[in-house]
Specification:
By secondary structure, the protein is of the alpha+beta class. 15% of the residues lie in helices and 33% in strands. The protein is built from three helices and 22 strands. The protein has a five-stranded mixed beta sheet with strand order 1-19-18-17-16. A hairpin with a 2-residue loop joins strand 16 (303-309) and strand 17. The longest helix is centred in the first third of the chain and has 32 residues, at 46-77. The radius of gyration is 36 Å and the shape is elongated.
Length: 383
């Protein structure tokens, strides 16, 4: 090897050898890759040792920087988490894959008829308790709520509740069944003090309507169905005048497969509105009636809160602890479910009012409650 003539040439020579590729299949350290002619590292001069260390440091730094740049480029190219993923970072974003599945299940629950009740000619009246339902659980409820309507929104896992009385009418929402703090009033959903709030229903994935009792006013609200905090985002769209058989509004239930809204007004009539125009399809109006074992037809008035379930309408009857299963095309009451023992009158405080409020869940179970009651009852109908 030609001896370097000066320091500059010496450094260049060392660099030349340091950059030579390693021999295949022969492991060696970076330091040992620098050729040292005939003496060990310890015998080298101080300047040579310094030069080797500097070269080694530069090489390691070069590799580290390029490795970091490569890692960053891979992160940039990788797709960001989907808003619908159920990751911890997006735990407050809806709909998740799970809630979308629940949404689809509930649609199926609402529309698929129960074959047990497709060809009935007489009304089935079930006895109270086990013949009618099974109690699964209860959830605390603010006993000051005069409950008029109840409906579950699976995309955001939210329960909506409309509350009546003049100067007190509001819409509440809470995460069901996980949120026991069900007193969170939605300030943007308060009805005018001169309106008596009645039933509500979700007409689209991100809209709901609320009826009023005698004011002939219905209000449309929209909300962000991708948010877990719906209670702060409900926005009033418009207020619409309506008419019914007696110009009152009691219950409402959206039938998505028909694009119609079933409406009750406290009479024995069920009306059906076009869900786009909110006007009645008069040819579809039916009168709710039972048929006894002897074939006698008996009309049932005071039809109150409504829920669409298995292709039928479930309805509360004002001042009765029962739920009716009603055929939507004829008004025929297929089944009467008896709830007299769910919270017996003898056990209720004086201020507690009537049984009212039905919400269907994706697993075919229901949530029921009452006006000024102190809990929600999670039940399953015994069909």
């Amino acid at each position: 090897m030609t001896k370097p003539r000066n320091r500059k040439q010496k450094l260049k020579t060392n660099l030349h050898f340091a950059m030579k590729p390693m021999e295949p299949m022969k492991p060696m350290s970076i330091v040992s890759s620098v050729p040292i002619p005939s003496s060990s590292f310890s015998s080298l001069t101080k300047k040579t040792k310094t030069t080797i260390c500097l070269i080694t440091f530069a090489f390691v730094t070069f590799v580290a920087i390029n490795l970091q740049l490569f890692t960053q480029s891979q992160t940039t190219l990788s797709p960001s988490p989907s808003p619908t993923s159920n990751s911890n970072s997006n735990s407050n974003i809806y709909p998740t894959n799970s809630s979308q599945n629940l949404h689809n299940l509930l649609k199926s629950v609402r529309t698929n008829p129960n074959p047990l009740y497709t060809n009935l000619t007489r009304t089935i009246t079930k006895a109270k308790g086990a013949p009618s339902y099974t109690l699964l659980s209860t959830t605390p409820k603010d006993a000051n709520r005069f409950t008029q309507g109840l409906e579950y929104h699976p995309l955001s896992q939210t329960m909506f509740e409309s509350v009546g009385l003049y100067h007190q009418s509001n819409i509440f929402s809470f995460n069901y069944p996980n949120d026991e703090n069900t007193s969170n009033k939605l300030s943007t959903k308060q009805l005018p003090p001169n309106q008596f709030g009645e039933g509500l229903t979700l007409t689209k994935d991100n809209e709901l309507i609320v009826l009023t009792w005698q004011e002939q006013a219905m209000t449309r609200f929209s909300f962000d169905s991708n948010s877990a905090d719906i209670k702060n985002e409900l926005t009033k769209i418009e207020e619409i005048s309506f008419t019914t058989s007696n110009n009152e509004g009691w219950g409402a239930a959206f039938m998505h497969d028909k694009n119609e809204i079933a409406i009750s007004d406290g009479s024995d009539n069920l009306m059906f509105w076009n869900a786009d125009t909110y006007t009645e399809i008069t040819s579809k109006r039916v009168r709710v009636h039972k048929i006894s074992a002897t074939g006698t037809k008996q009309y049932v008035s005071s039809i109150n809160e409504l829920e669409y379930y298995e292709g039928d309408i479930l309805a509360n009857v004002w001042f009765k602890e029962e739920v009716l299963r009603i055929d939507v095309t004829t008004g025929f009451v297929k089944v009467v479910y008896n709830f007299k023992d769910i919270w017996p009158n003898s056990e209720r405080p004086k201020h507690a009012d009537v049984f009212n409020g039905i919400a269907a869940l994706p697993d075919k179970s229901l949530v029921v409650t009452g006006k000024l009651w102190d809990r929600y009852y999670h039940i399953k109908l015994n069909d």
